[in-house]
Amino acid sequence: MATQNTTEITEVKITTEEALDLYLNLKAQIDDLSKKADALKAQLREATSAAPDRKLILNGHKLALRTQSKTSISFNEVLKVHPRLAKKFGKTTTYEVFDIR
Fold first, then answer.
1. What SS3 class is residue 96?
2. Residues 25, 28, 29: CA angle, nearest 5 degrees
C-alpha cells in the first residue's frame, strides 16, 4: 500500500504596498550579491588569464578563457544604403516592458 505525504502550504496575503517594499528589499540584496559575485568572477578571470594555457581546474570546476568573435549587420546602416532590402528582411518584435523606478 502506497502512502502519500502532503504538506499544507498556507498562503499569506500581502498588500500591494508590502509587495513593493519586499520586492525593493530583495532587489537591493540581489544587486549587492551581484556586485560581490562580479568581483569574485573578475578575480577568477585574472587567475585564469595568468595560467599558461588560459585554463584552470579548481575544486573539480574547469575555468577557461578564450577569444570569440561575432559578425552582425547593422539594420540602420543597411536602411541607409538599401532601404527596400532593410524593410524586406527587417523584423519587428513587440513586447511589454514593466518598470519600477
1. coil
2. 90
Instruction: Tell me the pLDDT tens digit for each residue of 25-40.
Output: 999 999 999 999 999 9
- Per the listing, cell 519586499 goes with 22
What per-residue string of b and e applies to 23-34 under the rule 16 or more CB within 10 Å gives b? eeeeeeeeeeee
H or E segment to which residue 49 belongs:
helix 16-50
CB 82 within 8 A of CB 73: no
Q: Answer whether 78's CB lies under 8 Å from 85's CB.
A: yes
Per residue in 10-64, pLDDT (tens digit) is: 777 899 999 999 999 999 999 999 999 999 999 999 999 999 999 999 999 999 9
Grid cell listed for 78: 543597411
- For every residue of 16-39, which 3-state class applies, written as one string? HHHHHHHHHHHHHHHHHHHHHHHH
Q: Whole-model pTM above 0.85? A: no
